[in-house]
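User: Structure please.
Assistant: Input sequence and predicted structure:
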Amino acid sequence: MSKRAQTTGAPRRRRRGRQTATVDGGENITQDQTESSYKSRAEREEQLQKWVIRGVAAVVGILLLLVAIAFAFEQLIIPNQLVASVHGEGITVRDFRQEYLLERNRLLLQLNQIQNAGFDVQQLAQQEPYATWINEINVPDQLGLRVLNDMVDDRLLAQEAASRNVSIDDTAVRQAVESYFGFDPTEVALIGVEPTATLEPTITPTPYVSPTPSPSPPPTATPDPEAEAESEDAEPTITPQPTIVEPTLSAEEVRDNFEENERDYRAYFDRAGVALETLDAFFQRNALETLLADALVPDDASLLYADARHILVDDEDTALAAITALRQGESFAALARAISTDPGSASRGGELGEAYIGNYVPEFRRAIEEAEIGAIVGPVESEFGYHVLQVRSKEQRADADVESQRERAKQQELQLLKDSLRENQSDNFEIYDSWLDHIPRS
């Protein structure tokens, strides 16, 4: 018997060492590997929990990333997009939204003040400018277009002011703020100050001048017996109560009220989401427009007044026929009464009277400026139709009567300048259709 075949009755010892096992596919793994791959239930649950936490964290991270991207897009990318450009200078969504909020809340504040003063806003809705204000508040697109056009005009006007060497400083801006709130420091400083007595000039009688006759006294009215009888039966007259006069505020109180109003005004717009810089820019534009208007119509400038008459018709052929008839000797007054469509002047033979020419539409005004006295001029086309006109007289005036008209003339000249800039520089600005997507809707 071979040695390998010999055996004893004692049990064999299991040999320690690494044993291998064959798994499907013929791959051999060791016993150590088998034992290490076995995990308890608690270990498996812990491992699963870790994977769940990692998955949730990944999802949350992705969501946070998407939110951050959306926030960055809404707060950084969109606000810097352009809705218009003027001479290569962009108008951003941020600026447009701010100006929209400023103007909308200005309209709301004005309407609230009118309503608090006891006026019926519904009745005012039939009048201008209140009808436009209410429409713009109710129709965001209408207000948005007006605001954007105003922003374009402001930039065109700023460049025009620079070309005329018109610029603002802190003093001009402060004056614009005071004017906006109706505060006049000069008038306030004079409150409580006794006016200096003005010496009456001594009048030296001029010889050989007849005294001005005094007007004759008016005739005494003849009493009406029936009226006297009615007055005897009339109710007794109620004596009106004396009017309570509010005490005049001191200069200090007036200034305190102005400063409080300004603080409240700024706080109102701050609550509405309007940045302080936007409100300051509003007053800066007011200051620049005031200086530019003063440059266009200085305080000592004379204004052109004209005595004119006109015939207004609907089409050019009728206007040409009217000119032919007038040059053949037809009466201007008779023809105006017969064919003019201007209800205000037709019944007066087309007479417009003597007036400041800035009161007329630009086309009519220019025709008056260029017309020779007595000449038949036309046809002149305007938004109302076709005019045939004749100027009787023209005169530059700078007297006291012009003072009340001068401020209006300043604003008219400023508006004419805006219209001219927009017309002549139409190639230098562009409004993009995307502005409609960026109107604040809240």
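Confidence is low (pLDDT under 50) at residues 1-7, 197-246.
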